Amino acid sequence: MVEDELKLLGVESKDFSALRKAGFEKIDQLLNHLPKRYEDRSSCDTVATLISGKAVCLRGSVVDFKQRHFGGNRKFSEAVFVLQGQEMSLGGRIGLRWFNMPYIRNMVAVGMELVLYGKLKESKNGLVIDHPEFEVLEDGTNGGIHVERIVPVFKSISGIPQRRLREIMWAACEEMESSRIRPFLHPGPVADRMESLRSVHFPEVLEEAHAARRELALEEFFLLQLNVLWQKKKIKTSHGVSQGQKMDLVKEFHGSLPFELTGAQKRSVREIIGDMRSPEPMHRLLQGDVGSGKTFVAMCAMLAAVDSGHQAALMAPTQILAEQHYYTFKKWLEPIGIRISLKTGGRAEKSYMKMEGGAQILIGTHALLYDGVSFEDLSLVVIDEQHRFGVEQRRKLITQAKKAPDVLVMTATPIPRTLTLSIYGDLDVSIIDELPAGRQKIVTGVRAKPKVSEVTKFLKEHLSEGRQVYIVYPLVEESENLKASSVITEHEKWRKRLKHFKVELLHGRMKPEEKDATMSAFREGGIDVLVSTTVIEVGVDVPNANIMLIYDAERFGLAQLHQLRGRVGRGEYKSYCILATNSKEDHALEKLQILSRTEDGFALAEEDLKLRGPGEILGTAQSGAGELKFIEFLGDTKLVRVAREKAESVLKSDPQLIKHQVLIPYLKESPQSLDIS
Ligand code: ADP
Ligand code: MG
C-alpha cells in the first residue's frame, strides 16, 4: 500500500493529508523535495560578528515581548532577544520585529529559548531583525536535526511547518533503505544515489551538500542531453531536401556586393550549404554579434534554395524587424531578379502580395504560420532571433512544408558555449566571430551620477549635426518607482531640455501600431531622440543614430547592455554608448567597466554567466531550461560535457533504448514517433 510507505515515517494524520494534497505519496518523491537553502547553525554567531546587513544565526532567549503600533492602528510584534552568554552586555540585545503577523504572539513568549536566523539591521534603538526565521528550543528536542548542525530549509509545503517538514525529511532519509528508491538514471549505482540524497538533505558540511547536488544535477542534465540528442536524431532521420548544388545565384549576389564577405561569413555559408546539400534536414544555429553580417549569410543560403527551384522563408519576431529585413532583401536581391514578398499580421492585405510567378523568398512575422499562407515548395526556413519564439512555433512553421525543410536559426545574443550545448544541443552551430573590416569602434563610457547639463550639452552637439539619439531607461515595476526613473516622466523632462528637437517616447505598453509608427519615423529621421525602454533592443538598424545613453545601467545584464550598444555604430559616424548610474556600489561600477573594456559579445556573455548565473540569463529566453531543478550548474562546463558524453554513449550502444526501458518515460517524445518518417 502506498499509504504505508509514508506511515513508516511516523507522519501524523493531519500532516499526511497535507502531503497527499501536495502530491507526495512515496518516500522517493519526498526525497526529491530538495532544500532550497541551508542555514549554518553548527555554530551560532557571537556578538563580535554582528554586523548590520549580514545574515546571522543566533541563539539566546526572549526577555520581553510586546504588541506595538505603527502608522495609526496597525500593529507589530516586538521581542527583545538576548544572546546566550551575553545577558549582561548591551550589545547582546537585539530587537525582533514581525509586522502584520498577529499569530506570532501565540508562538513567542518571554522566557523561551530560540535559535533564529535573519538579517541584522541598524535602527535608532540598536540592532534589529525583521521577520527572523526561528525555532523554539524545547526540552528534549532532538538537537541533531534542528540546531547545532547544517540545517536544510525546504520549499514549504502548505500546512506543514518547516520544523515538522524537516523531521519528516529526516525520517525519510532514515527509511531510505527500506523504500523503493529508483536508481540513478545516469549510469551509476543506486547506493550512490542514496548517498547523494542523504548528503543533500542533511550534510555534515556545506561542501558535502554541494557535491551531492552536483551529482544529482548530472542526472538531470543527462536526461536533458538524452532528449536533445533524441530530438536531433529524429530530425536527422526524417526525409529532407537535398539542395544548393547550383550556386549561380550565390555567385552573382556575391559579385554584386560592394564589399567582400568576411572569413567568418564565408565559413558559415560553407557550413550551411554543406548541410543543405545533404538529404538530412539541416538544423543549424548561426550565432553572431549584432552587425556581424548574419543577414548576408542568410541571403546566400536562401539564394541557394531558390537556385534549386524551391522557396525560402525568413521569420522575424516583430513587424518592425520583418519590414526591415524585407527592405534589406529588396535592396540587395531584387537587382538580381529575385521575387520577394512580405507577410505580417498587421498589414496582411497590403503586404502579402500575390506575385506573378509566385514569391521565391517570403519574409514575415509569425503570421507566416497562419492565415492561409501557402508555401508552394518551402525548402529553407530562416528564423531570426530565435529566443523570441517557442519551440512549438518553430515546429509549426517546419511542418508547413511537405518535406522537412532545412532550418537555420539566427541569434544575435551570444550564448556561452556551455549553455549552447545544453539549450541548443539539438542544433549544429556556426559562429561569426569577426566583424566586417573598417567598423567604427564604439566609445563606451561609464558615468556615475552625470550632470544633466553636461549630458544635455553633449547630446545637443551631436543632434545639431543631424545625428539621432537613443535614451534608454529600465522597465519600472510599480513598487520600485522611487528608485528607478520612469520612462514617461523622463520623456517629459527630455522634451523640455531638448526643445528644438523632436523627442518621442517608445515603450512596451504602447499599441503595436503606435510602436511601429514611432519606430518607422525614427528610422526615417522624423524623430531625433527616442526615449525608450528596452523595446528597441533587438535588430533595429538606424545608421544615423550615434548615441546610446542608458540610465540606471547597472540594472541591466551585460549581454543586454551589449545588445543595446549594438544599436549604434552601424553607420559612418563615430558612436558613443554612455552608461549612467546612480548606484554607489563598487561592484555596479566595476560591472559596467567591463563593457568599456571589451566589445566581444561572447566574452561578455561568459562574464554575464559568472556574474548572474545561468538562471538569470536563460530566465528570459524561452527555453526548456526554466524547468530545470539544477539550473545553477548549467555553467559547469565539465558537468555538462560529462552528461552529454553519458547520453551519447547510451544512445550509441542502445539506439532504441531497449536495454534502458527505465529512461523511456523521461523522453519528451516517445520512441514510436521516431519511426514515422
Ligand atoms: P547582423 O544581421 O549580424 O546584425 P547584418 O547582416 O545586418 O548584421 O550586417 C550589418 C551591416 O554590415 C549591414 O549594414 C551590412 O550591409 C554590413 N555588412 C555585412 N557584411 C559585411 C561585410 N562583409 N563587409 C562590410 N560590411 C558588411
Ligand atoms: Mg540582423
Number of domains: 4
Looking at CATH, the homologous superfamily of the largest domain is P-loop containing nucleotide triphosphate hydrolases
Query: What structural category arises from helix and sheet content?
Result: alpha/beta
The CATH architecture of the largest domain is 3-Layer(aba) Sandwich
Number of helices: 22
> Stretches where pLDDT falls below 50 for ≥5 residues?
348-352, 478-484, 673-677
Strand order of the largest sheet: 11-12-10-13-14-9-15
CATH class category label of the largest domain? Alpha Beta
Strand content: 15-25%
Arithmetic mean of pLDDT: 84
Q: What summary fits the major beta sheet?
A: 7 strands, parallel
Q: Ions, cofactors, ligands: which are bound? A: adenosine-5'-diphosphate, magnesium ion
Estimate percent helicity: 25-40%
Per the principal axes of the C-alpha atoms, what is the gross shape? Answer: globular
Cα-atom Rg, whole angstroms? 30 Å
| Ends apart, CA distance between termini | 43 Å
CATH topology-level name of the largest domain: Rossmann fold
Q: Please report the total strand number as a whole number.
A: 21
